[in-house]
Amino acid sequence: MKSLKYSSIIIYTPSNIYKYTFQFHEAFIYEFLNLKINAVSLKNMEELIQIINKDILVIFLGNPKHEDLLKILKLPNNTDIIIYETECIYNNSIHLSSYYKCKKVISVWTYSMHNYDVLQQNNIPSYYFPFGYSKYYDYRQNIKTIKNNVITVLCDRLDDRLNRIKHINTENKKAWNNKEWQKEIADNHIVINLHKYENSKDFHSPRFVPLLSNGIRIISEHCPQKDEELFKDFIDFCNINEMQYYIDKYKTENKKNIIRNDIVDKFRIRFNMRQYIINFFKL
Questions:
Q1: Closest by alpha carbon to 20, among 211, 174, 218, 155?
Q2: What does the alpha-carbon distance between residue 202 and residue 184 come to, in Å, rounded to a whole number?
Q3: What dihedral angle (degrees, nearest 10) is formed by the CA atoms of 84, 88, 93, 97?
Q4: Reduced to 3 states, what is the DSSP secondary structure of residue 220?
Q5: Burial tier of 204 (Cβ tally within 10 Å: 0-12, 13-18, 19+)
Q6: CA–CA distance from 222 to each of 104, 114, 131, 153 (Å)?
């Protein structure tokens, strides 16, 4: 395996964003270390300023509008930077390209083909990286019982769309550390994904990937077509009034452990975090 030209890689996530991206931040560290690459986790700007130099690569994980990214871009050195774009990009928000086109930014990574297309259309060096499977957030060995009757609904806000899913015990879960995530989410068999706003164009790869890494059935509102096409073998995309069909179908499944293991095996082959890292850096 080839070596990187950097002495170390810093995975930087602003502390107030970390709770939303903790699994991916820590999974990046886990995967780089398993590739024998020195990786450092930072969430504090002052600590970053103290150690940053031209031999370090900084991967900024978070909303590019965050003030910490602007501070990093203004640092007086030639440190290479990768921005991992965690927000949906719309054509009218591409004013952010001034950040992306800074000479320090060697690439913009993104989780969505929709985002990737917008970046490409604006001639911004970019890389499609939908996080992917990591053993770091595969909790199957710690799950004793798979819940069958509880449907976990992951959405940013609740509205009347939930009323269109008949007779379902819905509960909105938000778990902000590994222990909570494992306890509250990973042992469910079915997860419903609703967008923050109806008819949204976002694709929730940051939600989907840890779920699929545990073999969970996902029923989701429709997403951008290209993203749906890539994930159609793992997620049932449908309209609200079609969700009941899939819920009834999956609630009666037998041998759930076997089903979950099969989903994970296929997902690990198709979307693998370590392989995306290897491919980008040509290791």
A1: 174
A2: 24
A3: 20
A4: strand
A5: buried
A6: 36, 13, 20, 15
| Residue 214, phi then psi, degrees to nearest 5 | -115, 10
- Beta strands (DSSP E) in 78-211 are 80-85, 105-110, 126-128, 151-154, 170-172, 190-193
Q: Which residue has the higher pLDDT, 132 or 4?
A: 132
Residue 259's CB is within 10 A of a number of other CB atoms, namely 16
User: What is the pLDDT, as a whole number, of residue 283?
Assistant: 86
pLDDT digits (tens, 9 = 90+) for 111-164: 999 899 988 988 889 999 999 999 999 988 888 777 765 566 666 565 666 666
Helix, strand, coil percentages (3-state) for the chain, rounded to 5, are: 45, 20, 35
Q: Is the whole-model pTM more than 0.70?
A: yes
Contact assessment for residue 98 and residue 124, using Cβ atoms and an 8 Å cutoff? no
Task: Walk me through the domains of the chain, giving residue ranges and CATH numbers.
Answer: 8-129 (3.40.50.11930), 137-269 (3.40.50)
